[in-house]
Amino acid sequence: MKLILTADVANLGGPGDLVDVKDGYGRNFLLPRALAIVATRGAMKQVETIRRTQEGKRIRDLDHAKEVAGQIQGIGKVTVAAKSAGQGSKLFGSITPADIVAAVRSAGGPNLDKRLVDINGHIKTTGSHSVTVRLHPDVSVELPLAVQGT
């Protein structure tokens, strides 16, 4: 299935790129989420317009991403409280990106999208951890995280 991407899709391409994907991936994931449009003749004429508008947004987004990165770095270490399992350092469940976003917001940081937070595996223990926040393809911030058991 030939599609034209309308947004950045990890490991696939950027806005305005013509990609050939499997039918199920395009029909069940890309099209319902408005990440792509079907590559028709009319859509092919709009590719340059899509690229120009996304490039204009990207320049503004890069400046905004650097500003948000500065705000995140200004917070310092973020503390997340979670229910611990008994005396040890293990947690019931794990820390999710939504928990981290809520902790950043409560610490006076910016309002982030949980899809920007990359945990690098699972956080299932108390203590210090490091989390990556990918604000833009060119801007990512390491966020120190302290997990406390309750």
Descriptive tags:
rRNA-binding, 150 residues, ribosomal protein, alpha+beta, Ribosomal_bL9_C_sf, four-stranded mixed beta sheet, single chain, 35% helix
Q: Element order, helices and strands? A: EEHEHEEHEEEE
Mean pLDDT: 87
The amount of helix comes to: 25-40%
- Rg: 19 Å
Q: Order of strands in the sheet with the most strands?
A: 4-9-8-6
Largest sheet: 4 strands, mixed
Low-confidence parts: none
N/C terminus separation: 50 Å
* Outline: elongated
Number of helices: 3
Class from secondary-structure proportions:
alpha+beta
Residues in β-strands, percent: 25-35%
The count of β-strands is: 9
Question: What do these coordinates show?
Answer:
This protein has 150 residues and is an alpha+beta fold. 35% of the residues lie in helices and 31% in strands. The chain is built from three helices and nine strands, in the order E-E-H-E-H-E-E-H-E-E-E-E. The strands form three sheets. The protein has a four-stranded mixed beta sheet with strand order 4-9-8-6. Strands 2-1-3 form a three-stranded antiparallel beta sheet, covered by helices on one side. A hairpin with a 2-residue loop joins strand 8 (127-136) and strand 9 (139-149). The protein is elongated and about 65 Å long.
Care to give the gist of this entry?
This protein is α+β, with helices and mostly antiparallel strands.
